Amino acid sequence: STIYPALYTISKYLNLGIVKPEQLTVEALDYIFRGVGSPSEISARSGLDEPILKQMREEFLYWYPVDMRISAKELVPNHLTFYIFQHVAIFEPRHWPRGIGVNGMVKIEGEKMSKSKGNFIPLKKAVELYGADATRATLLLAAEDMDDPDWRDKNAREAGRMLETILRICREVASADVEELGEMDAWLLSILQRRIARITSMMEILKTRTAISEALYELYNDWRWYLRRGGGKLGKAAKTFVETWVKLLAPFIPFTAEECWSILGKDGFVSTERWPEPDEKLVDGVRELEEELLSRLMEDIRSIIEVYRRRPQRIILYVAASEKKAALEKALELMKEKPKNPVGDLIRWLIGRKLVEPKKAPSLAKLIFDTISACAQRYEPEVLIKAAERELEFYQKAKEFLEREFNASVEVYREGAEEIYDPRNKASSALPLRPGIYLE
Fold first, then answer.
1. The CATH number of the domain where 204 resides is what?
2. Residue that is last in its domain, among 55, 75, 103
3. 143 plus 65 within the same structural domain
4. Cα 35 from Cα 14, distance rounded (Å)
5. Of the residues 241, 267, 282, the one at which a domain ends
6. pLDDT for 90
7. Are residues 210 and 268 in the same domain?
8. Which residues of 384-402 are buried (b: 16+ CB within 10 A; e: fewer)?
9. Three-state DSSP class for residue 353
10. Bridge partners of residue 409, in order along the sequence
11. How many domains does the chain have?
12. What angle do CA 52, 54, 57 make, to 5 degrees?
């Protein structure tokens, strides 16, 4: 039962009555599947016409080996394992299986589908209820690798709403008349290149759930942040972003993608367009890091508000003194060198440079490493240093946005500045890439 794909290659001769089952002797099968024996002698003994026997051999050689065998994942430890064993035992190495794929079982609302329970949705019904693309997206988002997907009605409806949102965005962008680059355009184009690279790499290793999640939701979150930071204004990069987004969505939600492509006024089909490739010239790590740090700063402010349980009227930010940048550079250097005790080395360095009181050096060293550890995994040291150099300028530009977000006035000072409002000495807690915060 494990080598029946070989029989498929010659089954038409049996189905059409050209060959009788009893004519397929062991000797005849040895010749067809292994090339062993003389066709003329086998023909004489089996009653098979020699031309037919040779044709059957040619059919087998044309179709074999099996490029991909698909079966259920529970058959891996039995049927599929013996499928490999039997092929290796019987056939030449050139006819051994090339690949095996396995399928799981789709669950519904956390339970196995069962005809007796009636808890199943035929594919046709799912398309009628949710639409083809929403059905596709729900299944793709439900599982990855060897996990069984779990179909849930609320997820399918959420997917449908997400597709409507994408269509709405395309209509808004198509009707917008924008010629100038906006303040957030460099960031938008940079993060787009990261998404292209990530989605492409996930598709290449068949991580389809990760790929569609990145294409559908992460790019949507990027778009929302772009609008939020820009006060709802669109820059010139908006159309480039949305057009590329539609291309990245095409393999997952093809019907919606084609509709979006038409809405955007593009010719032809998006499915025939070239797959996007990341443009390294558009990658701006400093801008990406700055937006990441801004988002983290907002989380810190919200955490303080939750503790004090009152809305602030005034938010004061303190950017670390310029001399503290040297501590950042030293920490990055130590991370690259990977000594046994980098925190201890930084403590000794801080004390030796007299950048901080000895008793404060341990906590400061730990905070510096905590601040940069996550960032250093994704950004080059030069990016972190550059972001630290223009930190004051960046937060001053972000004042209007922060005031809008928190409905409070915002002030930004450099630690150690002459005219500084700092009633609680919060400026001393400022670190490179992590401002000190005071609310009142």
1. 1.10.730.10
2. 103
3. no
4. 20
5. 282
6. 95
7. yes
8. bbbbbeebbebbeebeebb
9. helix
10. 314
11. 3
12. 110
Within this chain, do residues 38 and 90 fall inside the same structural domain, yes or no? yes
Which value, in Å, is the radius of gyration of the alpha carbons in the chain? 32
Give dist(CA 369, CA 75) in Å, integer. Answer: 49
Give yes or no for a contact between 271 and 368, defined as CB atoms under 8 angstroms apart.
no
Q: Measure the CA dihedral 185/188/189/191, to 10°.
A: 150
Tell whether 164 and 201 lie within a shared domain.
Answer: yes
Do 266 and 146 lie in one domain? The reply is yes
- Pair (87, 148) in one structural domain: no
Does 117 fall in a domain? no
107 beta partners: 112, 150
Residue type, 262: S
C-beta separation of 172 from 165 below 8 A? no
**Can you tell me which residue has the tokens 């010719």?**
267
Report the mean per-residue pLDDT for the chain: 94
pLDDT digits (tens, 9 = 90+) for 244-273: 999 999 999 999 999 999 999 999 999 999
User: Of 172, 135, 163, 284, which Cα lies nearest the Cα of 220?
Assistant: 163
Residue 51 lies in a domain: yes
Evaluate whether 387 touches 371 at the Cβ level (below 8 Å).
no
For residue 135, the Cα-to-chain-centroid distance in whole angstroms is: 20
Q: Which domain holds residue 243?
A: 123-282
Q: Are 45 and 27 in contact (CB under 8 A)?
A: yes
Instruction: Please give the pLDDT value at position 198.
Output: 98
319-337 pLDDT per residue, tens = 999 888 999 999 999 998 8
Residues 151 and 92 in one domain: no
175 lies in a domain?
Answer: yes
Banded pLDDT at 114 (limits 50, 70, 90): confident
Evaluate whether residue 361 is within a structural domain.
yes
Task: Assess whether pLDDT exceeds 90 at residue 377.
Answer: no
CB burial class (10 A; 0-12, 13-18, 19+) of residue 308? exposed
Whether the pLDDT of residue 119 is over 90: the answer is no
User: Which string of DSSP letters, residue by residue, matches 92-109?
Assistant: -GGGS---EEEE---EET
Cα–Cα distance measured from residue 108 to residue 120, given in angstroms and rounded to the nearest whole number: 7
Q: What crossing angle do the helices spanning 254-263 and 132-142 adopt, rounded to 10°?
A: 120
Top pLDDT among 158 and 101 is at 158
Task: Write down the pTM of the prediction.
Answer: 0.81
Percentage of residues in the chain having pLDDT higher than 90: 85
* Residue 223's pLDDT band (cuts 50, 70, 90): very high
